[in-house]
Amino acid sequence: MKTEAGVGLNAFESMILRFAAIMIAISSGIGGVVAGEPTVCSDPTGLAAVKDSAQRVLRNDHGFWEAHFGKAGVMIHIPAGLFVMGYTGEEEAEPQREVTLDDYWIAKFPVTVAQFRRFVEATGYRTDAERGNGAWQWNGFVPETPDAERDSWDLTPEGRWNNIFFEQGEDHPVGSVSWNDASAYCNWLSERLDLPVALPTEAQWEKAARGTDGRRYPWGNEAPGSGHANLADRRFMSKYGHARHPDPEIDDGFVETSPVDAYPAGQSPYGVFDLAGNLGEWVFDIYQKEYYAVAPDANPAGPARQPGLTDAEVPRVNRGGSWVDRSGHLGSEGGHTILAYARTGDEQDSADDHMSFRVAIDFHPRIVATDSERPDLEGVEIRVARVQGTVWFLEATGDVAGNMAAQIGPDGVLLVDTQFAELAPLIRKAIAGLASDPVTYVINTHHHEDHADGNREFGQGAVILGSDNARRRLAGLPVNARPSLTTASRMTFHLNGEEIRLMHFPNAHTDSDLVVHFVGSNVFHLGDLFNAGEASFPSVDVEAGGTLTGMVEALEKLLEIIPPGAKIIPGHYKLSDAEGLQQTHTMLVETISYVRDARAAGLSLEEIQKQGLPDPYGTWGKMGYTGADEWIANLVLAIERGQ
């Protein structure tokens, strides 16, 4: 293999081996590990990557790893192991039981006004509230008695994070942000730090707050006093009266929000601040009232999102209570609570003045789908067909996984995408019919499981290439199963006497898409930027950075550069060409316009689905992954996100 710079095969592979040895040494604790680390903090997952990104990493006063990222904040490592989740006697948190979590890092403080402001200024991001949803904020009503029927909070069109109707300092937690806004911040921070930043799962949040002893509050079982947390107290009453049933016996020092480090006495066992009161916090999980009763015993991450729902129909969990809440149990008196096991949910596109978020770094995959949603791999076969030049087409029967390409030649075997790990023996058998050599190089077109899960097998002997974002999104895989050579734009190398070009298309199907062009063979592999034929509509993974505009623009750019006679391997279904790609591009433009117009005319998702898509697209999507209803729901979701 030769790179653009002309490094020879042996030198290139030696470089990779040296790089891998260095990474293994670092992750194993050889060099760079703080002397005298306590056992409780030993060998965190991703420690080498965290150290590489952070300004400094040390242990805090509680004996746990603490990584400092400058203005991006401070993260605390939470070790793997059991903790007591839930609480008997609290309906939505029952049953109380032991749950096992992998290790993770969680922010020491919630995201502040200053941090969110830097994100907005750097990206031009507009929150859900600013795009027309408004925010739930104080309406000026001051109830004189606890039994007032009118609420003091309304959905206000002008409400937003920087117009929250009370004074906030830059070191206060940012409020009036939606779950979508919080997720967008996480994606931005992931790119800045080159780490897998996400909202913590509900279980991760609860362990960070309660430790392993099942305590009721982050500081213990003692009822909150004036120095523990910011809640609805006598100062709150001085402005808001009896709204939300405040506690007149407590004076926490603030009427509304407070600096994120104002209550050191309220820290959790790990040294995490503000997990009770101040502002409630969005977490990763979809809210389901009875979820604690059915959640798995290891690494629960919430139920799967049901197809066909808009953001306004998907509730996400929020935790911790806020400055408008009191300290006791949830009950008939109304309001939330700052108890560490209490949970509630709100629509993921909604915002209010007592909701914020904090971030986590999670190197492990999150499984939210049920087993029934993974395709049945029993009886699957791998079919092989020659495309042209040095390139072959590998397809799983039943379209249970993404299409692959194999380039065969004297320098070795290059495989584009790896499907599911369980199919690796079948893939190796199919390749053995083409070449005696094993797979020596792998390219990931993106991070989705049906295209990259096989990295677990092929990464044991092959060098993996991909986009920067694919490496980040595959952070839960073993280090040798993640791309070690990555690009944020383009890469060119030479293998088997042929020039191979990689082109990254950001924010299209996902934010990790990579197109592979075998120049001499005149073959393109487009991954899931393109599902050939009418059997299935495409999909835009909005939660993984995909956008409608990015999808359309990617296909337009490809149509400009694909030469005559080119063969195209799509992510799914049959081999195709530029004519087939043009058909899909036309479909994208016309169906997006149709659904956008229908929404502008006031039609609901269900009404558009009932009405169906116009000809000739009424017959599409009958056999594949994405039917018409799912595609319409995908379009509505993306349009609601402002795409």
Largest sheet, described in full? 7 strands, mixed
Strand residue percentage: 15-25%
Distance between the termini: 40 Å
The helical percent reads 10-25%
Describe this entry's structure for a reader.
By secondary structure, the chain is α+β, with helices and mostly antiparallel strands. The chain is built from 16 helices and 27 strands. A 7-stranded mixed beta sheet has the order 16-17-18-19-20-21-22. It has a 6-stranded mixed beta sheet with strand order 1-23-24-25-26-27, with no helix packed on it. Helix 13 packs antiparallel against helix 14 and helix 14 crosses helix 16.
Q: Brief overview, please?
A:
This protein is α+β, with helices and mostly antiparallel strands.
Descriptors for this entry?
643 residues, 27 strands, 24% helix, six-stranded mixed beta sheet, alpha+beta, Metallo-beta-lactamase, Chain A, seven-stranded mixed beta sheet, paralog of FGE (formylglycine-generating enzyme)
Note the topology.
Elements: E1 2-3, H1 9-27, H2 47-53, E2 56-59, E3 65-68, E4 74-78, E5 81-85, E6 97-101, E7 104-107, H3 113-123, H4 129-133, E8 135-138, E9 153-156, H5 179-193, E10 197-198, H6 202-210, H7 234-240, E11 280-286, H8 291-294, E12 315-319, E13 343-347, E14 355-357, E15 360-361, E16 382-388, E17 391-396, E18 404-409, E19 412-416, H9 424-432, E20 439-443, H10 449-452, H11 455-458, E21 463-467, H12 468-473, E22 485-487, E23 490-495, E24 498-504, E25 514-518, E26 523-525, H13 548-561, E27 567-569, H14 578-600, H15 605-611, H16 628-640
Parallel strand pairs: 11-14, 19-20, 20-21, 21-22, 26-27
Antiparallel strand pairs: 1-23, 2-3, 3-4, 4-7, 5-6, 7-15, 8-9, 10-15, 11-12, 12-13, 16-17, 17-18, 18-19, 23-24, 24-25, 25-26
Helix pairs in contact: 13-14, 14-16
